[in-house]
Amino acid sequence: MVERETFFGSDRRYRLFTAVKYFTYALLCVNVYLFLQEELSALQHTFTHGVAPAQLIQVFAATIDTAAWVVLLLLFELETSVLDDSRIRGGVRLSLHGIRGVCYVAIVYAFTGYYAELVTLYQNSALATGDACSLLGQPWSVLVDLDEYVPLDAGNCAGLGAELYRIDGFDILADAGQLFDAQLLAWTDLINSGAWILVVVVLEIEVRMQLRGGLSERAMQVNKYVKFALYFTLFAAAAYWGVAGDFLDFWDAALWLFAFIFIELNVFEWQYETRVGEGVEGASATA
């Protein structure tokens, strides 16, 4: 059987690329469940008296964010790889853009949730006591990590530092070191979320220009530098999560970077096929 030439060199390489790509997408779907479990666990220590509608995004920011990104990723997959350009017209195009618009709203909404969580960590009060063990018998929770809490008990109270803080509005305490580490992780969440929003804006522009046949070499060069800066920021965030020992965030960030490498390669393949198609048409016209 004769294999067709693609951007990847052959059909065999392309099939391997596709298999790894969809396996990565499946793992990202699993991450939605993992973030939901983590945030439901945190909810037992935070909004213990009930969650108001306006607080839902702060409680489930990572779950909503990840779910919206998975849908958005699959839409980009459809547009850049699965669907032929000739089919992305009329109702199909409107449907894709409509669903993508809803995802964008969810992603920006999640960004506000990360911001609210960061602000909450800075709204704290120093406790008069420097001995956490003196608070035993009261319904206190200890901030272990961002979105990770344990009940205060005799086994962990002695390990807390002398400088204790209460998160305002919650029965949650943390020593200075724990609070600072959680604030850094919250900043990382916010910066990471903002960088991804900018990535998708650049990618959206690139896809639309490609569909309209206006993706020039100059535009591609500008996009390349902008995306390099954004992906560097995302790699730095993933590295920080790895060093800080936040495995789920590190794993999720690594998967997303891997997934968007596939989307970028989809775009390269798309551009390659367009150039080859134009070359064939040009040769036919000349003949």
UniProtKB/TrEMBL annotation:
Record's keyword annotation contains Transmembrane helix: yes
Domain of life: Bacteria
Keywords (A to Z) from UniProt: Membrane, Transmembrane, Transmembrane helix
Sequence intervals crossing the membrane: 16-36, 56-76, 97-116, 184-205, 225-244, 250-268
Stretches of the chain forming a coiled coil according to its record: none
Name this polypeptide is given: Shikimate kinase
Organism: Parahaliea mediterranea
